[in-house]
Design a protein that fits this description.
The structure is a homodimer of 204-residue chains.
Chain A (H helix, E strand, L loop, with lengths): L4 E6 L5 H12 L3 E2 L1 H11 L3 H7 L7 H9 L13 H19 L2 E4 L3 H4 L6 E7 L2 H12 L6 H20 L11 E4 H4 L1 H14 L2
Parallel strand pairs in A: 1-3, 1-4, 2-3, 4-5
Helix pairs in contact in A: 1-10, 2-3, 2-5
Chain lengths: 204, 204
């Protein structure tokens, strides 16, 4: 594979974001994570925090979100009758497609695997881990207490799963959506990076 | 990881069985696939074909199978009131645990990932592929016509999925059930073998 585009989807606390960063450093190509949020915020005019939250997570019940995308009830619509969440998705969609067109890169989250599904030069990766490893990362790096962690992890992943389902009609975390899924709890962060590098060598 | 135990679950037509065989050859360790069916047939006294079919696939509707395991209605019970399907599962369960205890090996299918879930020296792998690659393999190696292939592939995987759900209460093909999931359509058979070898090097 000449051009290297890697998308990384990940469970909260699995270290997927960090794996994306390390991978991009090893490959000497850009990693779009916070940078992508900046670009969407700039393009849309929304605040970064709002983009970070709405661009990947479907908070509240799925039914509520579906209902809100069909009506003006909750006042989160832009001037053209599209929900703000949808507007962010459309802008992300365009920016991710442009980035992939431009050159090799790593893109973390944001349904990039689905958005780039028609390209043949993309390796789609999913990072997950056992609950104990995720709690350990969340407590160490995100300042969350051990008591809070299990419920928070579940909530974050539920919101990502709902968001993914809503925009892709696919089940988040199903192995068949990705070329490579890795348990960072078993393989370690550097182990995951090395296995992804190996897969990039092998890809047809 | 000193001892190498690798379980391989796979979609029908993904080449998972062949990947298991090649991997075991590279590692110089036994691969239990047909050999495992022989062992279960010998231990249970059932015919090989019956073990091959019932030991991994839940044919008919899931509800029918659940119902049949609760009653004597369909005359598929052994003398001790356990359904023949359950009896095969229990024997497989014991044989797989004994094999893992004995030494390094590759075990293909048969819920081995779940059966060995309490061991820490196991790498669980899931092999899948895009529909076109699976049809190609099914037509080339299993003597199936291109017209028959899509429905047959779906039926075989549905039966495996139902069987897995029934005995493990987990969803077959969810990335989080495995340490490593690979798309053999993208990575190729030899590519998958090499990525698994890399993961075995990295595992903690």
């Amino acid at each position: 594979m000449q051009k290297k585009i890697v998308t990384i989807s990940r469970q909260y606390g699995s270290g997927g974001r960090y794996i994306g960063k390390k991978l991009s450093e090893k490959l000497g190509i850009p990693c779009y994570d916070e940078k992508l949020i900046d670009m969407v915020a700039k393009e849309s005019g929304f605040a970064q925090d709002f983009v970070a939250e709405k661009g990947e997570r479907m908070t509240g019940s799925l039914l509520f979100n579906i209902a809100s995308s069909l009506s003006y009830a909750n006042n989160v619509f832009s001037g053209n009758g599209v929900s703000l969440q949808d507007e962010i998705y459309f802008i992300q969609n365009k920016i991710i497609k442009d980035l992939a067109e431009k050159g090799s890169c790593v893109i973390v989250g944001r349904c990039a695997d689905y958005i780039l599904r028609e390209r043949e030069d993309v390796l789609n990766v999913f990072i997950h881990a056992d609950m104990a490893s995720k709690i350990n990362r969340a407590v160490t790096y995100f300042g969350i207490t051990e008591d809070q962690a299990p419920a928070l992890l579940k909530k974050k992943d539920k919101a990502r799963s709902n968001h993914y389902k809503y925009y892709t009609d696919q089940d988040w975390g199903m192995a068949s959506n990705y070329d490579l899924s890795l348990n960072s709890g078993a393989l370690g962060i550097d182990g995951c990076v090395d296995v992804i590098l190996k897969a990039l060598e092998e890809i047809k």
